[in-house]
Amino acid sequence: MLATVRNPKMWKTLTGRRIFVFSRKLHSLKTIEIPNLYLDEMIWRNLDKWSNKTATVCAETNRSYTYQELYNKSNSIASFLHKFGMVKDDTVAIMLPNIPEYPIVFLGAVQAGVQVTPLNPSFTPGEISKQLLQTNSKMVFCTNEKYITVLKTLQSAKLYVPIVTINTQNDTSPPNDSIDFDDIAQTSPSNFQQVFQRDVNDTIVIPFSSGTGGHPKGVELTHRNLVSNLHQMCVHEYDLLLSEADDLCPEQNVMPFILPMYHIYGMTMIMLQGLLRGCKLVTVPKLTSTMLVNVLDNFRTTALFIVPPIVEMLLSNSHIKRSHFMKIKTIMSGGAPLGILQLKRLREKAGMDVNIFQGYGMTETSPLTHIQTTRINVGMKLGGIGLLLPSTEAKIILPESGKQVGSNEVGEIVLRGPQIMKGYYKNEMANQEVFMSDGWLKTGDLGCYDDDGHFFITGRRKELIKVKMAKTH
C-alpha cells in the first residue's frame, strides 16, 4: 500500500505510481471493503481447509489441539457460559499464560456474545482486583497454579465470582471449589445456538493500556475493529505470511507464541491472525533463552513475531545459529523501535533470505496501523515503521496548536480507520482527551512521513513509565 497526500491543486508521481495531494492528510492508496462478520465467524470460515491440522501445541508438554478440536471446545465454552447465566455485555476475565487452551476460552467467550478482559498472570493481587472491579468481571479463567492467588484476591475484594481452572501440568487435580475446564470443554455441542442478538459494533475484548499517558485504562475493541485489522493484514501487499512463490502457501506456517497472549500484539497478530490463516501456534508459557533455543530446534518455525528484547535473545545466544533461520520467511519486530544496529546484526545472523519488518500500532488501534513491506518499492526504509495499512488515514499535527504539517515535518501522529477502538471503557474524560473531531485518534507519538508516505517515529509527546513487559505499545 502506498500512502498518498491529497491536494486538489497538484498531481505527482511517486515511484511510477500517480498519487494526488489533498489537504495534508495521508491516506492509504488502497481502500478495501471490510467484511461484515463477527470475529468468530471470520476465524472459523476456513475451518474445513485445515480441520485436521494442529492449531496449538505446547512447547513444554506437547499438549495439542487440532483446528476441529479447538472449534468444538470453543463451542463448549460458549454453551457453558450461556447455561451459567452469562448475558450480553457481561465480562469474562482470562488470566492465563501462553497455553494451547487460551484461544479456546477467548473464542468461546466471543462466540457466546460476552466480553473478554485479558490479565497478565504475573499481576499482583491489587492489580488483579482493580481490573476485575473496573470491568465488573463475572468469571475468571486461570491455571491450577494461580487458583489460590485469584481466590484470595477475590475474597479480599469481596468479589464472589466463579473460577474456572485449567490443568497445564497433567499431574495436578483441580481445586475443590473451582470449575474444571476439562469438564466443561469435553461436551461438544454440534451446533452452538447463539441466544443473543449480536452486532459487529459490540465490544468483545477489553485489554488495558496506558494510552498517551496516565493510569491503565480499559480499551473497548469490537468485532469490526479486529475483523478490520485482520482483513487489512491479509491484503497481498502487506501480508507477512504469504509465500512469495505461491499465494496459497503449500506448507503450514509455524509460529512460536513467545509474546504474551494477553497483549494486543500477540493476541491479534499471532493468535487471531495465525488461526485465521491455518497456522500451527507453538505456545511458550514462560520464555527463557533456553526455551527459545528448544523451540527453534524442535519446531520448523516459518515466522517470528517478536519485540526488541527477544531480538537481543536471538543475537546474544551462541546456541542460536544460522541454521535455525533456514525455514523462517518473516521476522516482525514491534512493541518498541528496533535500533538500526540491532537490525543490522539480526540480518547478519539470520541471513539475507529472511525478511525483517517493523510496524507500528497500539492497543487502541487493534493494534496495527503501519507495516513495512517488500511488495511495494518504498515499503522498506531503514529506521522506518512502514506505510499505512489499507483504509487507514494519518496526519501530523503540532501538539501545542493542533496545526497540520506536511511531509518531513515532525509532530504528533493522529490516526483514523476502522481498526480504531470504540473508546476507553467507562472513561469519558479519557475519550475526550484522546479523540479529535471526526474520529481522529491522538497517539501521543511524535513522528513524520517522507515524500513516499513512509513513516518514522521520533519520540513521545509525554514521557512514559513502563512497568514490567506489560506496557501495551
Automatic annotation (TrEMBL):
It is found in: Peroxisome. Pfam families: AMP-binding (PF00501). Keywords: Peroxisome. One of its GO terms (biological process) is fatty-acyl-CoA biosynthetic process. Residues 45-425 form the AMP-dependent synthetase/ligase domain. The keyword Protein biosynthesis does not apply. GO terms for molecular function: long-chain fatty acid-CoA ligase activity. GO terms for cellular component: peroxisome. Belongs to the ATP-dependent AMP-binding enzyme family. This is AMP-dependent synthetase/ligase domain-containing protein.
